[in-house]
Structures are given as C-alpha cells and as structure tokens.
Amino acid sequence: MDVFGVNRQSPLRVGLSVTKAEPALTGGRLDGLGVYSRALLEHLPQAGVEVFPLSFAPPGDAARVRLGRALPVSFPVATLGDLVLPRSVHLSTRAALGKGAAPLDLFHATDYHIVRMDCPVVATLHDALPVSHPEWASPKLRKLKNWLQIRAARKAQHVITGSHYSIRELVQHFGIDEKKISVVHHGVAAHWLDAPPVDERDVTLGLHGLREGYYLFVGTLQPRKNIGRLLDAYLALPPVLRSARQLVIVGQPGWRSEDLIRQVRAARERGENVVWLDQLTDERRLRHLYAGAGAFIFPSLHEGFGLPLVEAFAAGVPVACSNTTSLPEVAAGAALEFDPLSVAEISAAMTVLARDDGARARCIAAGKRRALELTWDAAARRTVAVYHEMLNA
C-alpha cells in the first residue's frame, strides 16, 4: 500500500482530463490538445490502465458533459481556490466519480488545466510558447495568464512533454526541475498507415475542387505557423508548376490571421491555384486530403512536437519542413528541411518534391518508417511507464 491506500498490484486508476475533447464544450472541433486527449482516452486502456475521463466544465454547464464526468468545480474556481485556500485543500476527484468510488492513483492533466488534487498529478505541457514567445499569443491578459500557467505547471508531481526540445523551454521559462520531465513522442493511430479507399478519397477531393498532387498544409492560421511565407514561396514557383499543383491550406482562422486571409483571398482573385479549407474538422476527410496530396509543406516557426508531420508520414506523402525547434527531432531525417525564414529555401524544397522522383521516393519511404515508430499505441505504453516511474520514485 502507498500513502493513498492503493494496492499497486492492481491496474492503475487514472483520471484523464478530456476537457479539450468533450464535444459539448468544443463543438466537436478538436485542436491539438483535443486530439492528444482523445488519443490517450482511446489507447491508455490497451496499455493496462483503468481510465476515468474527467472534464472541467464551465460554471453551470456540468450537465452537458457526456464524454466523461464533470469535476466538482470549474477550472477558474479551482484556480482561485489554489491561490487563496490553504495548501492542505485539494480538488476532490472522488466527488466527481461518485459516492463510494475508490481513489485514483493519479490524475493526468493533458491541457494545462492543472490544480492541486486529492491524488498525484501528471501534467502534459506541450510547450512554453505563451511565455517564450508572447508576440505569438493573444495579448489579452497575457501577463496574468502566463503567471497563472507557470504557477499551475509547478503543481504537477511530474511533467510529460512531446520532445526533447520542449524540455529546454519548460526548464527555462517555467522553472520546472528537468528531473521531473519525461519525453513521450506523440503519434498516429494505426489506421493512418493504411491508404483510404480511392473512391472515397476522390469524392472528398471533388467536393472541394481539388486535383490530386497538390501542396498541402494543415494547421491553425496564426503567426507562428508561417503560412504567409509559404504562400509567397508558392507564388514564386514557375507558372507551369503553379498551374499543375494547387496550394491547399487546411485550418481554421486563429489569432492575428486577418492579413493572411486577405492575402489568400487576393491570390485567389488573381486566379492563383490557392484553396483554403477553414471548416474541415472530420478526421476521415482529413485523411483523404493527405492521401491526395503530392507534397506536405510545414514551415512552422515553432512546434513543441508537430503532429501534422507524422500524419503526413503515415499517409505516404513526401514532406518538407522547418529546420527549427522540435521538427528535426520529430522528422528524424525523413523530411527535406529548410530555413523557415527563407522564402527561397521553402520554394526550392517545393520544387524538389514536385520534380525529383528520387527525392520523393526517399522521403516517402523514410516517412513511412518514421510513422511506424510514432504511434499512439507506443505513446500510451510509454505514458503508462512514466506513471509507474513517478509513483515508484
């Protein structure tokens, strides 16, 4: 028995934060945090743990939660309690699980919603972006939000992050002890490795006016994604190449995306082969778009991991990406790399993947091998190993 009265021979009982995956709270649109939370919910049970999905619902919205159970108070109320109440007071997970429920071994916060709880807390911190690069985050209450986030991060008994690059950021900007951080690479589900039926793919492409072989980008439209330079690089390609290959941008508008949206619309008005899909949230159709792409281009300036890279690898699409932050670690040599600040280098990589059959074949083969190493099954097993390491420390 440990101090919480739990027999370690039985399967771990893990409370999992699914706030960002809860349809009632997200409208069914999953961002990266939601994809991560949903993936753990689906794959942790296969790794031998008993999972209890829990959500921080907004005040008065607890009854809407369907994916799991609502925690007894909202996150703002819990955060306020952390600030003003004695450290001996903790949020009760047992209250959420119901009367007579056995205690949890731990709670895994997947989405930066970290407070003191009645069990150990493992937190996944994907990056320190709002602190390390405040110019890429909304300025509204930014100093207060950063201060609260740093305080919250230090409440976790252990931290998981998606790359070794992110460790450096978390240590530097959150002041977390490096010994308390473990790297667990993200992944893709096994079905991503199988090509979708061609007829289904073609229906999706037809619905959006796409021709097979286009350049593809997937990600929220925001400054750090560097889509403006991607558009400039595409427009710098020879006219014959632009005529043959569309540029397809898949992503919802984010903070400070107004100028980029105007640039995209202006390019379309000039007759350029640029397509922006801002409402595509269905994973099946997203797989169809990857399958129809001729190349995936990812010019991001900053990533804690970069999941679209692995999705493209799994889909058998040759990839070119930035040579910065976590992306070289994730690509592990399977992608062409370029300086994301250089429009000329981005354009050159796009040209190579369109015209050099040998380079395309090498990237596709290397990407498939890399995708086999980065699955959600493997991520779940490694995550459970971190749970045990933390509890047995």
UniProtKB/TrEMBL annotation:
Per the UniProt entry, what species is this protein from, by scientific name? Answer: Duganella callida
* Limits of the Glycosyl transferase family domain: 212-369
Q: Which residues form a coiled coil?
A: none
Name the InterPro entries on file: Glyco_trans_1, Glyco_trans_4-like_N
Single GO biological process annotation from the record: lipopolysaccharide biosynthetic process
> This chain belongs to which protein, by name?
Glycosyltransferase family 1 protein
What's one Pfam family here? Glyco_transf_4
Fetch the CDD domains from UniProt.
GT4_MtfB-like
Q: Where is the Glycosyltransferase subfamily 4-like N-terminal domain?
A: 31-188
Q: Write the record's keywords in alphabetical order, separated by commas.
A: Transferase
GO MF term (any one): glycosyltransferase activity
